[in-house]
Amino acid sequence: MSAPILSATDLRRHFEVKSGLFGGTNTVRALDGASFELVPGRTLAVVGESGCGKSTLANLVTMIDTPTSGTFTIDGQDIQPGDELKDKVLRAKVQIVFQNPYGSLNPRQTIGKILMEPLLLNRPEISAEERERRAREMVELVGLRPEHFNRYPHMFSGGQRQRIAVARALMLEPEILVLDEPVSALDLSIQSQVLNLLTDLQDKFNLAYLFISHDLSVVRHFADDVIVMYLGKPVEQGAKDEVFENPRHPYTKALLSATPMADPARRQERIKLEGELPSPLNVPVGCAFNPRCWKATEECRNKRPDMSDGSHRFACFHPENGDN
Ligand SMILES: Nc1ncnc2c1ncn2[C@@H]1O[C@H](COP(=O)(O)OP(=O)(O)OP(=O)(O)O)[C@@H](O)[C@H]1O
User: Fold this and answer.
1) Number of Cβ within a 10 Å radius of residue 97
2) Which residue in 37, 48, 242, 324 has its CB near the most CB atoms, within 10 A?
3) Element at 37 (helix H, strand E)
4) Which atom of ligand 1 lies at the shortest distance from residue 229's CA?
């Protein structure tokens, strides 16, 4: 396996929000300590219920937002907010593809213009001819036809628009792509075409993917490594096969039990999580999952479990035995 292109250590993003009528503030722990690596040619998926901090994590990795604390390095260089030139160079290494291919493309620009724009803005030394050559080449690489170069986004289907969004993200030759629910707005049959394209492009350019998804059946096919998040904190992480085959955290087990399995022999009873997902403004004391956990004890209600060591890690005092 290659060396990591990105290493994050204990990343946190807290938001101060107003509370009540008397000017008090409260802290939303949107991301509360995530450590992980992105490796060229591999896909790390971030999974968890809505509000667990997936988009907050994506915003930090793409440098749209800065962490409250924690560090991350890209290509061995520390990311420090404020160092503009370094930021710009490093920013080009990380690009993002959003969920909604309808909202993310400028309807007044042709596909050619949309693809050439990142080069115009970030690589002004590249000539107009070369810009166009690269954009036309990219149109073909993502499986569109040459005549699409002069067409407008509204002339394309959802799947084609997502191909255009991927093409635009690749124009600056990034090393990391953040894929924020890239196929969840697409029909099932189109989803697999776009995922196949992403796999081909990953192989061709040795890209590291950070794949944000709430859909575990997609993650099962697409990811190499997984982080399971709960209320802003990773509760389990490791190689996808390990985590999916031997889930150790009860939350992971519950999430997986709700995912349809193709193989009837491996279907299992769905674990129904009791209670609502607590607010990140009011994270339960002890293990954040304890009010919904069928294994919770006094210890879980009082102490927060640390992440274990090793390549398959989990934060639980009473882990599952690993069968799934
Ligand atoms: N700017 C902000 N100010 C205050 N709270 C925020 C802010 N951004 C996010 N949050 C809160 O942080 C928590 C995590 O949000 P985030 O968008 O990262 O979750 P998510 O896992 O991406 O959810 P979804 O799947 O619904 O997009 C949520 O409770 C959200 O309300």
Assistant:
1) 23
2) 48
3) strand 24-38
4) 21
Tokens at 23, concatenated:
């000017």
Give the SS3 label for residue 217.
helix
CB count in 10 Å sphere of residue 180? 21
Q: Are 312 and 238 in contact (CB under 8 A)?
A: yes
The label of the residue with tokens 């990773």 reads: 234
pTM, 2 dp: 0.93
Ligand 1 neighbour 12 (Cβ under 6 A): no
How far is it, in rounded angstroms, from Cα 317 to Cα 202?
Answer: 37
pLDDT in tens, 13-52: 999 998 776 778 889 999 999 999 999 999 999 999 988 9
Identify which of 28, 60, 212 to mutate to test ligand 1's pocket (most ligand atoms within 8 A of the CB): 28
Amino acid residing at 203: D
Give the SS3 label for residue 298.
helix
Structure tokens at 202: 């990953």
